Amino acid sequence: MARRGNELRPIVKLRSTGGTGFTYVTRKNRRNDPDRTVLRKFDPVLRRHVDFKEER
């Protein structure tokens, strides 16, 4: 059974840099990626791919 509140893989929110306020929610491994993550994902409001930056 999975443990809750695991600090090694915290839940992070990815906010669109397109200014729409759209977010994705995912988990990341803090040991492999200690810095803030930037992923290029689809923004359905803009209907195109933009960078999504992690906010804590």
From TrEMBL:
The keyword Ribosomal protein applies. One of its GO terms (cellular component) is ribosome. Keywords: Ribonucleoprotein, Ribosomal protein. The keyword Ribonucleoprotein applies. It holds the Pfam family Ribosomal_L33. NCBIfam families: PRK00595.1, rpmG_bact. Belongs to the bacterial ribosomal protein bL33 family. HAMAP family: Ribosomal_bL33. This is Large ribosomal subunit protein bL33. It comes from Aeromicrobium halocynthiae.
